[in-house]
Amino acid sequence: MKKLVLLGAGYGNMRILLRLLTKELSDDIEITLVDRTPFHSIKTEFYALASGTIPDSDVRVALPIHDKLKVVEGEIIEIRPDEKCVYLDNGLQISYDDLVIGLGCEDNYHNVPGASENTYSIQTIGKSRVTYEKLLGLGSGATVGIVGAGLSGIELASELRESRPDLKIKLFDRSPRILRDFPERLSNYVKAWFDKHNVDVVANSNITKVEPNILFNHEETISVDAVVWTAGIRPVEPVQNIETEKEKSGRVILNMYHQLPAFSNVYVVGDCAALPYAPSAQVAEEQAEQIVRVLRLVWNEEPLPEKMPEIKLKGFLGSLGKKQGFAYLADRTVTGRIARLLKSGVLWMYKWHNG
C-alpha cells in the first residue's frame, strides 16, 4: 500500500483530492489529509468574515468523503523528510511514501517591534474570528488601522467601511499609489472609491513600531483603537524549519516537478513554494494540477517529462464592498459592478466544484 499524505486542507490540496479521488484511483493508494480543522476554509473571503459581512459558515467547505481518504485533525509541529515522517502536537506520528506540503503562510511582521503582539490578523479562520470580535466591539468613532494595501488590505478596508460606516479607517500603503504594479486606471478607480467612502489611504508609509493603540509611521505617531496587519506573508514555522534551500522570503525552492531537490517524494504546493508569481489560490490550484500529473507518472513507474508546462494565470479579481469591484484579466482592466459579479460567480463555481 502506497501512502500519500497531504498536509493542509488549502486550495492546492483540495484540487489534488478533487483530481485523485476518482474511479481511476488505484486500490494500492491510501491518502491521508492532515489539518487543524475538519473542513476547508475559503481564505480569499476571510476579509469579509473579519468585517462581519458574512457568517462563518460561508467560508467553510466540507472535506470530501471517500473510502480511500483518511482525515486526521491536529497541529503539525515538525516535518522530517529524512525520516519520511510528520509529527503532530497531539503526539501522532504519520509516515508517508509521498508527501505534499500545503500548509500556507503566516503574517510576516518584517521585524517591526510590537507588530506581532499588538495587531490582528486574517491569515487563518481562527484569527479572522478573533479580529471580527475585536472590530465588532469597537465603539462609534473608533479608528482602525490596516497595515498593508495589497489585495487583502484593500478588500478588508472596503468591506469594513460598508459594515461599520461609523468607524474611521486608515489604510497604510508603502507605495506611492494603490496597486502600483498594475495599470494606473485600476489604481485610480480603487483610490476614488476610498476617497468617496472616507477611507484614508496613507501613501508612502513605513510602519516602524506598533504599541497598544499607537502606530508609528516614519516619525509620526497615530492613535488607533485596533490594527489589522496585512503587510506580507511568510511560510509557516514547520516549513521554515525544514533543512532545504529557500529564497530570501523563506519560501522553499523546488525543482520543475514541484519537489524538494533532495527528496523527490516531497512536494510543496501553494504559499510556501518559491515560484515567480505572487502567492494566490489560483497559483496553488495550477501547481496542484501539475503535481497530480507527476504523482500519477511516478505511481505508474513512467518517465517524467523533460519539461513541465509554464503555469499561466488568468489574472485577479478584487472586491470593494458588496457592490463594486476591480479585475485585471488578460491584460485588461475591469471595474465596477461587472467585476464584483465576476468575483461572486467565481466563488460560487468554486463552492459548487468542491461540493
From TrEMBL:
Cofactor dependence: FAD
Q: What is this protein called?
A: NADH dehydrogenase-like protein YjlD
Q: What is its EC number?
A: 1.6.99.-
Q: Which family does it belong to?
A: Belongs to the NADH dehydrogenase family.
Biological process GO annotation list? Answer: aerobic electron transport chain
- Coiled-coil ranges from the UniProt annotation: none
Record organism: Filibacter tadaridae
Q: Provide this UniProt record's keywords sorted from A to Z.
A: FAD, Flavoprotein, Oxidoreductase
Which InterPro entries does this chain map to? FAD/NAD-bd_sf, FAD/NAD-binding_dom, NADH-Q_oxidoreductase
